Amino acid sequence: MIILYSVATLGALGLIYGLVLAFASKKFHVEIDPKIEKIIEELPGANCGACGLAGCAAYAEAIVLHGEDITLCAPGGDSVIKEIASIMGIEASSADRKIAVIYCQSGGKDNTNLRYNYQGISTCKAAVMVANGPNICNYGCVSLNDCIAACKFDALHLDDNGMRVVDKDKCTGCGACGKVCPRALIEMVSKKKRVHILCKSLDKGADARKFCGNKTACIGCMLCVKKCKFDAIRVENNLATIDYEKCVNCGMCADVCPTSAIFDPLKEVRAKKREEAKKKAAAAMKAMAENKATEENK
Asked: Per the CB 3.0–4.6 Å rule, which of 53, 159, 243, 296 could disulfide with 58?
């Protein structure tokens, strides 16, 4: 009898709670704008946070309910922007695609000067907490690959020397790698910009070059500042930086940098053209001299 009473009591309570929940679900039901669901379907679903919000669902809600900018999804790119614009019934605008730039040319197996052999937790964050990291340069890459682990798009790899390199075709500019770098060596820069000062050292010139395992540290010599015709470079705290808003990719700063701290993929192309121009000029001068000598001998 007691068992039957207990079962009946539990059944009654279950029925009451069920009715209360059913009533509450109808009473407090919030209609979800179908546009939000459609936008969520178009977003890549990476939940990387590049848009500045908690995830794709939060971004979709912000677009529909709060008029958020539709160009903030770096992984989605222009194709997603066009789809969202179509859903929202507005004009699509192209996003300035950004990719990760690693501002350090050390960090490989053969180009890093170490002050001690680190044997702790294998993360960059943990390593810099032990005497500011194992590498002598306090501003350089710690080389434990937190950035690679953070990348959801397989856009960061190690080259043959153990250097971290960015795959420009795969990088979405989400910024996840930059957020985990304890020395803030990774920034998102417009893919249109090709000239970069790949150094973050604030040490004075002689020390910067001595501590850098690759000898490519910025030494604050000011040659790049003097060479730039567009006022796009400044030196503060012994470090040169580029104002990408002013930079026109001429690469002249890279041509005069004595340590190759400034990277421009077209630097060698320009050097080759200058060498060819010198040879042509020398050949022309030689031909003129020979012609003059011939004329004088007549």
From this structure: 53
